[in-house]
């Protein structure tokens, strides 16, 4: 449940456009930002693409690891959830937020992140939805966006990844998000025009709007 907060007391997150960055240094930078932030630190939203990498959440199991030798590195992380794949052509939005200051809980934030993607796709006439039993955004049975968060001392990091125009083959070597046989899709295959850069900007705006809701 969220709590009303004075909108004037909380600055809008600063959007940082990082381009293409390796996963692990980006993750470590999020950890450092969160560890060093104070009650006065402005929230941030990072937009980034990663080179090919599998990332394991804290709920991952050995049987979810790649079943073939893909040559793609695997990184154990501290986010929630299970295994996923990041690669070029996917936009990742990392939310570094003081949740207590915003008066919002983790589950509510997850729903708001999902709604941001749902609204983005609706702008292009694509019907999508989140799922209570399996966080993320789906078009029919196919997953188009995955998410995971870590919360420390009331502040979160990690975020949501939207598949835009990428090689989906690496997903076939894993059980995406721990679900065997889960179908994965991307905006290009859904008839949505736009580059990673364009859709990243649109996603950021929808995420910012979803965060404003908690301040009303």
Biggest sheet strand order reads 1-2-6-10-9-8-7
Whole-number mean pLDDT: 92
The coarse silhouette is: globular
Stretches with pLDDT under 50, minimum 5 residues? none
Task: Specify the biggest β-sheet.
Answer: 7 strands, mixed
Summed up, the helix count is: 4
Helix-strand pattern: EHEEEEEHHEEEEH
Radius of gyration: 16 Å
Strand content: 25-35%
Task: Give the N-terminus to C-terminus distance in angstroms.
Answer: 14 Å
Structural class: alpha+beta
What percent of the residues sit in helical stretches (DSSP H or I)? Answer: 10-25%
Quantity of strands, as a count: 10
List the helices and strands and how they pair.
Layout: E1 14-20, H1 23-36, E2 44-49, E3 53-56, E4 74-76, E5 83-86, E6 90-98, H2 99-102, H3 106-122, E7 129-130, E8 137-139, E9 142-152, E10 155-163, H4 196-212
Parallel strand pairs: 1-2, 3-4
Antiparallel strand pairs: 2-6, 3-5, 6-10, 7-8, 8-9, 9-10
Helix pairs in contact: 3-4
Mind explaining what this structure looks like?
This protein has 216 residues and is an alpha+beta fold. The protein has four helices and ten strands, in the order βαβββββααββββα. The longest helix is centred in the middle third of the chain and has 17 residues, at 106-122. 41% of the residues are buried.
């Amino acid at each position: 449940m969220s709590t009303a907060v004075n909108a004037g007391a909380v600055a809008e997150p600063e959007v940082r456009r990082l381009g293409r960055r390796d996963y692990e240094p980006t993750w470590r930078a999020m950890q450092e930002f969160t560890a060093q932030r104070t009650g006065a630190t402005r929230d941030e939203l990072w937009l980034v693409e990663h080179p090919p990498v599998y990332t394991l959440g804290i709920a991952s199991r050995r049987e979810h690891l790649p079943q073939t030798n893909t040559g793609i590195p695997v990184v154990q992380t501290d986010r929630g959830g299970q295994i996923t794949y990041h690669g070029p052509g996917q936009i990742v939005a990392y939310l570094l937020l003081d949740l207590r200051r915003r008066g919002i809980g983790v589950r509510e934030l997850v729903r708001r992140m999902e709604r941001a993607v749902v609204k983005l796709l609706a702008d292009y006439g694509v019907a999508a939805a989140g799922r209570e039993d399996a966080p993320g955004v789906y078009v029919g049975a196919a997953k188009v966006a995955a998410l995971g968060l870590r919360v420390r001392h009331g502040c979160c990091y990690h975020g949501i990844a939207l598949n835009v125009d990428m090689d989906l083959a690496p997903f076939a070597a894993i059980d995406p998000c721990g679900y065997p046989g889960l179908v994965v899709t991307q905006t290009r295959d859904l008839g949505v025009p736009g580059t990673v850069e364009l859709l990243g900007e649109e996603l950021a705006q929808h995420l910012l709007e979803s965060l404003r809701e908690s301040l009303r």
